[in-house]
Amino acid sequence: MTRPPEIKRGSVWRGxxxxxxxxxxxxxxxxxxQALKRHGKLIGTRCTPCAQVYVPARSFCERCFAKLTEEVExxxxxxxxxxxxxxxxxxxxxLPRPLAxxxxxxxxxxxxxxxxxxGVHDPVKIRIGCQVEIIIKPxxxxxxxxxDIEGFxxx
Amino acid sequence: xxAMPISLGGTPLEAQDMERGKIFSxxxxxxxxxxxxxxEAIGRYLQELKxxxxxxxxxxxxxxxMIPPRMFCERCFRPTDEWxxxxxTGKIITxxxxxxxxxxxxxxxxxxxxxxxxxxxxxxxxxxxxxxxxPPKQVKVGMPVRAVWKPAAQRTGSITDIAYWEPSTKTKKxx
Lengths: 155, 175
Known about the structure:
The complex is a heterodimer of chains A (155) and B (175). With 155 residues, chain A is mainly beta. Chain A has one domain (26-154): CATH 2.40.50.840. In chain A, 9% of the residues lie in helices and 43% in strands. Chain A contains 1 helix and 10 strands, in the order ββαββββββββ. Chain A has one helix at 26-39, and strands spanning 12-17, 21-24, 42-47, 52-54, 70-74, 77-88, 94-106, 113-118, 131-136, 149-154. Chain A has a 5-stranded mixed β-barrel. Chain A has a 3-stranded antiparallel beta sheet with strand order 4-3-5, covered by helices on one side. Chain A is globular and about 65 Å long. The model of chain A has no long low-confidence stretch (mean pLDDT 92). With 175 residues, chain B is mostly beta strands. Chain B has one domain (39-167). Helix content of chain B is 10%, strand content 39%. Chain B has helices at residues 15-19, 39-50, and strands at residues 25-28, 32-37, 54-59, 64-66, 72-73, 78-79, 82-86, 89-95, 98-100, 106-118, 126-131, 144-149, 162-167. In chain B, strands 8, 9, 10, 11, 12 and 13 form a 6-stranded antiparallel beta sheet that branches. Chain B has a 3-stranded antiparallel beta sheet with strand order 4-3-7, covered by helices on one side. The termini of chain B are far apart. The model of chain B is unreliable at 171-175 (pLDDT under 50). At the A-B interface, strand 1, strand 2 and helix 1 of A face strand 1, strand 2 and helix 2 of B.
């Protein structure tokens, strides 16, 4: 048997690209997060012709492209539309505790909102369509971020 | 005809609007790390830089000495033949006086990026680097320069192991 030719170990140049960016929430995001931060309220925008209520608030209807100006407050309760249990983080490293993510249609909204599903002890017991409530941090902990919401909890 | 001012939509913002929390935003700092395979030729080139030497690659068919080295002659379409050391002196074959830094800051004293044709390599064979220790107005195409190396302990196998290039003949300093 002949030995395979020796492969020369190549050298590698390592570097890092310095980059940072501010992602602003935009005018309608400003309305949503201001209401969340100050009053713990959830604000959407309505498109009457399309019979849609977008939550979080959006500037334009994604169906008819109309500018949306009518603000609507939606309830803190809703129904679970979908969920997933995560065992690894986004870098594929195992999570110390599994994490549940939920898509929820809040009462009064027509769109789905993504956030954590908290207080899950037994994933097998989660049912699509079950009622959930949104848990918002106390006012002094709110900064105007989506993490001012702790997540959804099954009622 | 007078041009009409263009009015664009949007919300004018300044950095402090974000920093003071007037505008809600997320600061996102992705960690963009990369590992680039240097290949055989550049790998050796970088190793030699760490030793304080410049190395080139020769093609026997067209008799060119190429730096930075490459394992394939793009003129003859055949592998290059041998390694040859070249000098750490050369001459400027093109340069620029740059009054902005790489991250677009204004500079009072210009940086002088230049292509240095290396002594011992074929005509036009050179490396892009930076020239210092010369009044900007005195920089000329054809000016002889020499490499100023970092101390051996600080060299890492990088093109910046050469700190900069400076004129090898004395230039008159203006008062």
